[in-house]
Amino acid sequence: MKLIKTKAELVDALADLRGHIALVPTMGALHDGHLSLVAAARADISSADDMVVASIFVNPLQFAQLGDCDDYRNYPRTLDADAQLLESAGVDIIFAPDVAEMYPQGTPEVWVRSGEMGSQLEGASRPGHFDGVATVVAKLFSLIRPNRAYFGQKDAQQLAVIKRMVHDLDLRVDIRAVPIIRGADGLAESSRNQHLGATDRQNALALSATLAALRDRRIDLEQARVELSNADAVDLDYLEVVSPETLQPITWPPTAPALALGAITVGGTRLIDNMDI
Question: What pathway is this protein said to act in by its record (predicted)?
Answer without folding.
Answer: Cofactor biosynthesis; (R)-pantothenate biosynthesis; (R)-pantothenate from (R)-pantoate and beta-alanine: step 1/1
